Amino acid sequence: MNEIIGQDNTALSQTPQEIREAQEDYGSNCSANPTMGDIIHRRFSRRGFLGGSLAVAAIASTVSPLALGAASEAQAASPSFNFDEVEAGVDETHHVARGYDADILLRWGDKLFADSPEFDPMAQTAATQLRQFGYNNDYVGFVPLDGAADHGLLVVNHEYTNAELMFPNFAKVGKQMVDGKEEDAVIMGEFTKELVDIEMAAHGGTVVEIRKVDGKWRPVLDGKYNRRITAMTEMSISGPAAGHDRLKTKDDPTGTRVFGTINNCAGGVTPWGTWLMAEENINGYFGGEMPESHPEHAAFKRYGIPGDNYKWHAFYDRFDVSKEPNEANRFGWVVEVDPMDPTSTPVKHTALGRFKHEGCESIVNKDGRVVVYCGDDERFDYVYKFVTAGKFNPDDRAANMKLLDEGTLYVAKFHEDGVVEWLPLIHGQGPLTEANGFRSQADVVINARLAGDALGATKMDRPEDVQPNPKTGKVYCMLTNNSKRKDEQVDAANPRGKNKFGHIIEITETDGDFASTKSTWEVLLKCGDPSVADVGASFSTATTANGWFGMPDNCAIDVDGRLWVATDGNNKKDTGRTDGVWAVETEGPMRGTSKLFFRVPVGAEMCGPCFNPTSDTFFVAVQHPGDAGLPTFETPATRWPDFKDGMPPRPSVVAITKQGGGKIA
Ligand code: FEO
Ligand code: CA
Ligand code: CA
Ligand code: CA
What is the distance, to the nearest Å, from the Cα of residue 270 to the centroid of all Cα atoms in its chain? Predict the structure, then answer.
């Protein structure tokens, strides 16, 4: 998710979480890229009448004879998931399928080092936070140590901070005017440099050694790899934009060094065991005025900069665009971290383009090149993939760590005939010329969104995780929702107007070639409640009332190639359920059937999902628990996971294992 806007000292016209939702749902794509009209039915008919296994009771909501046929086929078929489904609902704690344990592994404020202080929410400082697990865990990755499945490094992004839930005596429930009516609202307190420094220290990521002992995972305190990365950690910049004038600042006249990474949403672990942290809603951290006459003005507008959601710019000039405009060009990248070397300098890879990266999941292609998939999570923005120039060498890790410096970035154009074309973002090709404002490849990657606009990429319903499946050669693209898409703007790949519940697209790369520039696609699922005809959801009718979900966000593929989907936003949309992880059948007659495996406490979002290499552990991240209603430090919607008076809710990573051992589900 997202980002906090409205963290100023004035009364908000919306609650902090409404503002975050609105901000994440921000749309700044004013390009004239065409939509294709109401042609989704043609895509479905093609699948129904030409497609082999007919899969998907993809049309279940219309309850046609065709769908009924698919449904009985689905009910007769054997599922690939055999856990007892969790009952959907909303309450103060988490729930996992019967027969599984869901153990809290790491909470915000937990010690990471032998000298870490105990967490004391009443006495937070930046110094203590720097030695503790950060806030709002999002992406979770597992890097085995010595090839083990029960001992490794957990790498975790800390996406953003909820000041209203973190800081005592800070936010208050008060009154404010909304549309001429006085309403209760959360009113933020006054930010000080001290609070901003805690926020900066709570961002970034954590590397922590973990080990399974007697069937339970434990962090290894003071493990030699343990590390906190924050909004202050020094990083280098590589790739085509490194050293470019647009990246130079007063602090860094070379344009190659930058302090910190922010709003790291999802990410990935590379085939060579490094951690990719994706910078998402970076715009919110910049404040100040950007004059219209400034050469960056138009590009900044396309990126929503300045978003002015945090108060960092009041204390750090680099976050004030009127004082240091180029600083904003130094965020919005994919950051590579070597978790095996806690002294290593993280690298911002500009070759992968600058946008609101949700994640960056990679795979070794059959020709040895590495392909990285990325979504730009904003409504009407794009899906990308990056193909390295060089090849993965299993025997040369140092060389692999240069692979993301050079390659081709592509943006997706989804055609209504079921073809997806990957259009290269290469300076000098097509419209990406000086005449159109692209003077070099640096301009192309810094303004990747504008390059996508120029190429006519397909405007999507907020692309989140894009996940290749190494078992099947397919790629799953989560599109979380886009309530602003008008009915006349629907197209084949974004088939619903006012798309409240999102959908999932399945891409089949041609001949299993992930570097292919022409592939095929279809809609795997249209999400939402299939019992409400107007929603137009397409879960198979074998899906129970607990089994459907809305707002797919992140996903993971287990060791058997099965798809697991984590959601963001079910809490807020009257679905009668919190977010959670659902197991989704993608193959055979059960395709399109979904089952609830785990759900989060009230107010939380489900992040992270990550399996260890043997899939006998499923790590999930519970983000912003208690963020519902009118939440403040004093009045959270839950005090999960500690449930102690005075202890705020704590975002936490949870390790799920099967009682008695064995693979998940
Ligand atoms: Fe950080 Fe796109 O959710
Ligand atoms: Ca999310
Ligand atoms: Ca999201
Ligand atoms: Ca993922």
Answer: 17
> For residue 266, which atom of ligand 1 is closest to its CA?
1
Atom of ligand 1 minimally distant from the CA of 480: 2
Centroid of ligand 1 to alpha carbon of 237 (angstroms):
23
Cis peptide before 641 (omega within 30 of 0): yes
Which tokens in the block code for residue 12? Answer: 């908000």
What is the residue with the minimal CA distance to atom 1 of ligand 1? 1
Inter-residue contact 468 to 506 (CB < 8 Å): no
> How far, in Å, from the CA of 187 to the mean position of ligand 4?
35
Q: Is the pTM of this model over 0.85?
A: yes
Q: Sheet with 257-259: list strands edge to edge.
A: 257-259, 234-238, 347-349, 334-337, 275-279, 264-269
- C-alpha 587: how far from chain center: 25
Instruction: Name the residue among 310, 335, 322, 172 with its Cα closest to residue 259.
Output: 335
With bands split at pLDDT 50, 70 and 90, how would you rate the model's confidence at 573? confident
**Nearest-CA neighbor of 478 among 334, 265, 160, 300?**
265
Distance CA 429, CA 424 (A): 8
Half-sphere exposure of 660 (CA within 13 A, CB side): 3
The protein residues having their C-beta less than 5 angstroms from ligand 4 (an ion) are 465, 467
**Is 272 in contact with 397 (CB distance < 8 Å)?**
yes
End-to-end CA gap in the chain: 27
537-550 pLDDT, tens per residue? Answer: 999 999 999 999 99
DSSP-derived pairing of the beta strands 369-375 and 419-424: unpaired
CA of 568 to the centre of ligand 2 (A): 6
- Ligand 1 residue neighbourhood (C-beta within 6 Å): 1-2, 159, 265, 280, 358, 377, 464
Closest CA relative to residue 73, chosen from 61, 55, 85, 58:
55
**Nearest atom, ligand 1, residue 281 CA:** 1
Specify the residue with its C-alpha closest to ligand 1, atom 2. Answer: 1
CB atoms within 10 A of CB 187: 21
Write a three-state SS string for 314-333.
HCCHHHECCCCHHHHHHCCC
Ligand 1 centroid – CA 466 distance (Å): 12
The alpha carbon of 479 and the centre of ligand 3 are apart by a number of angstroms equal to 9
Cα 474 to middle of ligand 4, angstroms: 14
**Ligand 1 atom closest to the CA of 375, numbered from 1:** 2
Cα(309)–Cα(316) distance, rounded to whole angstroms?
Answer: 14
Nearest CA to ligand 1 atom 3: 1
Phi, psi of 198 (to 5 degrees): -65, -45
**pLDDT tens profile 191-232:** 999 999 999 999 999 999 999 999 999 999 989 999 999 999
